[in-house]
Design goal:
- The complex is a heterodimer.
- Chain A is mainly α.
- Chain A has a single domain, classed as Orthogonal Bundle (ABC transporter involved in vitamin B12 uptake, BtuC).
- Chain A contains twelve helices and four strands.
- Chain A has a two-stranded antiparallel sheet. A two-stranded antiparallel sheet of chain A has the order 3-4.
- The chains are: A mainly alpha, B alpha/beta.
């Protein structure tokens, strides 16, 4: 049988094709990874933020606009993080101080980010204007390794930074006093409070971290693509929230989930390019990443439990 | 116990806070709609409901530009636009609102809005609706449909792409396989094969009109498999154009002039000019004919125009291939 530009199916999965799929999967995973890590901090402390996508969108616009005005991609990334930080503060005020219902307030933040990012884009920019993108950084020596180098060590710096955030997050959550406090207020805030831990302060801190990482995720996406458009994230923030459950609130699990989602997307795209997937099944194939993620989510969610105080506002003495 | 008053107070405060938050959201949402009634085109009012931004350099911009031109020409008095309604239910609300507000012509600019329009139009028999791109009026006397014969421009662009390709592989990034997107992709592929029957023309439908990141990766995949000329359709191709620019691969645009996205590599764009058929539609409405007819933009009625990038040095022989193809299409070939 033949299908790919006349090639036999057995010749389709060449090393070059597999390298391309893995490299693409890593690129697609980066925004999900950053946003999901940020959400993990919040959820481990008991705060659910459904507004991640809105924060990503405003971070994406801030990053895009800063690069457009300065020509410096790193200024753009910092701007995205700062906007994310401010939105994290807003989220903390709403969820921790005002004790609003977290699901509803999160949707409010999402809608705010969706509308405001588009409004700012229309008023300040108008027609899409391309911007500079992150330069590729070939890691010395490692990037020269056949296949491995192409897959893992010829990306932009922001890709390496995103993956470096995984061990950093693990260390903070599992091996620091701050991390212990996060876990304590997420599981049993009354006990933590009795021991002198300020639940509100810890939850404010995790919301600031989560907002910053969501902003950076949006900024990384926009600057990597070199463009901004209405609803640029296309729901990536919601996938990031699902990945927190998929990863059982652990950075390594989240990384695996983000890579799996990216890999399936990249695989489907490559198989479409190579005309392996019949056009009639294109729609079904496009759903594959979501379906597989949901199935995996169901499997994982049955084995692990969420932080006990997740979505529950804390009031001393209640 | 004094629990109830405290709870009541907390609930009240929370409710007030949520109302304030929702009010802010509503204000932002309201700011996304726009209406301009400063024209001198009498009292004829046109509303557009479209899926992406009014300046997306693609599908939505083409209809907004056309209606604004008719307003400038004095054909229309007032224009209202609700863009960014990628959620079909949101679009349906906007369509119904405009009809309720007494707009003379409500344009539902998206193939995905057909089901909604089929439900809404019978409720407003005095209002004229236009739906595109489609060739179906649902048998309703107050619905016009319109489409772009984008396969015509696609064929011309495909011929040029094949003539410029060194590798013999020309790739296409598509959204969802419907409407003018499908027509364009099919026409482009046919054009490539007319010029070079031995060429490979991989098509990657990403099954989304809005996923810029996925379109970008699709372009990367096509280039990785040897494509040295690319094309694509719908608003998400801005990502693919960026990849083509980075990799130095030529690009052919459609729906609007995409030269500004990458002047170094955009060769030409097929541009939609809906104003001709819209003016005809509006005149029909003014005469009391509210629908039941299909319109199409083509090369022959100047609804389709190939706009070349002056900054790209297109060889004369390739330009002549395009001109000959357009003449042939206009003559019915």
């Amino acid at each position: 049988m033949t299908g790919v530009f006349g090639a036999a199916y057995g010749e389709i999965f060449t090393a070059a094709v597999l390298v391309a799929i893995v490299a693409s999967a890593i690129r697609l995973a980066v925004p999900l990874l950053l946003a999901a890590l940020g959400e993990t901090f919040g959820q481990r402390s008991g705060v659910l933020n459904l507004g991640v996508d809105g924060m990503m969108l405003l971070g994406a616009f801030a990053g895009y606009y800063a690069v457009l005005k300065t020509g410096n991609v790193w200024v753009g990334l910092v701007a995205a993080g700062v906007i994310g930080l401010m939105l994290g503060l807003a989220s903390a005020v709403i969820a921790v101080t005002l004790k609003a219902e977290q699901g509803i307030s999160g949707i409010g933040i999402y809608l705010f980010g969706l509308g405001m990012s588009d409004l700012l884009f229309q008023k300040l920019v108008g027609t899409p204007i391309p911007i500079d993108t992150f330069p590729k950084v070939n890691v010395p020596l490692l990037s020269d390794i056949p296949y491995i180098g192409d897959m893992f060590f010829q990306h932009s710096l922001v890709v390496y930074m995103a993956f470096a955030a995984i061990p950093v997050s693990m260390f903070v959550i599992n091996h620091t006093t701050f991390g212990m406090n996060i876990r304590a207020v997420g599981e049993y805030p009354e006990a933590a409070d009795t021991l002198g831990v300020s639940v509100a302060r810890v939850r404010y801190a995790t919301q600031l971290i989560g907002g910053t990482l969501a902003g950076l995720a949006g900024g990384a996406l926009a600057i990597s693509l070199g463009i901004f458009q209405q609803n640029l994230t296309n729901g990536a923030g919601f996938i990031a929230i699902a990945l927190v459950y998929f990863g059982a609130w652990r950075p390594t699990g989240i990384m695996l989930g983000a890579l799996l989602f990216g890999f399936i997307n990249a695989l489907v795209l490559e198989l479409k390019t190579l005309e392996v997937i019949p056009r009639d099944l294109s729609n079904l194939a496009a759903m594959a990443p979501a379906i597989i993620t949901i199935l995996a989510l169901v499997f994982v969610a049955r084995r692990f439990r969420a932080p006990a105080a997740l979505t529950k506002p804390f009031t001393r003495g209640k | 116990m004094s629990v109830s008053p405290i709870r009541g107070g907390t609930l009240k405060k929370t409710s007030i806070r949520m109302i304030i938050l929702l009010a802010v959201v509503a204000l932002v949402a309201a700011a996304c709609g726009s209406s301009d009634d400063s024209g001198d085109g009498g009292d004829f009012r046109v509303a557009i409901v479209a899926p992406s931004a009014s300046n997306d350099l693609a599908f939505t911009q083409s209809i907004v530009d056309a209606v604004n031109k008719l307003k400038d020409d004095g054909v229309i008095g007032e224009v209202a636009v609700t863009d960014g309604t990628f959620v079909v239910d949101d679009a349906a609300v906007a369509i119904r609102d405009y009809a309720s507000d007494g707009y003379d012509l409500v344009i539902a600019h998206g193939s995905q809005y057909g089901g909604s329009l089929q439900e809404i139009a019978p409720d407003f028999p005095e209002t004229s609706f236009a739906w595109g791109t489609s060739a179906d009026t649902f048998g309703l006397s107050n619905v016009y449909s319109y489409e772009a014969a984008s396969d015509q421009g696609g064929r011309v662009m495909g011929i040029m792409a094949a003539a410029l390709s060194q590798s013999g592989v020309v790739g296409i990034v598509g959204p969802i396989e419907v409407g003018d997107a499908k027509l364009y992709v099919d026409g482009f592929k046919a054009g490539v094969l007319i010029q070079n029957p031995a060429a490979d023309v991989p098509v990657n439908y990403i099954d989304s009109f809005s996923d810029v990141a996925l379109a970008s990766e699709a372009a990367t995949s096509l280039i990785g498999n040897g494509a040295d000329v690319l094309s694509g359709t719908a608003q998400m191709v801005v990502g693919a154009v960026g990849v083509a620019k980075t990799e130095g691969v030529l690009w052919f645009g459609t729906q609007a002039n995409q030269t500004s996205l990458a002047p170094e590599i955009v060769v030409a764009s097929q541009v939609y000019h809906w104003e001709g058929i819209l003016e005809e539609m509006i005149n029909n409405v003014k005469d009391g004919n509210l629908g039941g007819e299909l319109f199409a933009i083509t090369f022959a009625n100047d609804g389709l125009v190939i706009e070349y990038n002056d900054g790209y040095d297109l060889p004369d022989d390739v330009k002549k291939l395009a001109d000959d193809a357009i003449d042939l299409i206009k003559s019915g070939g």
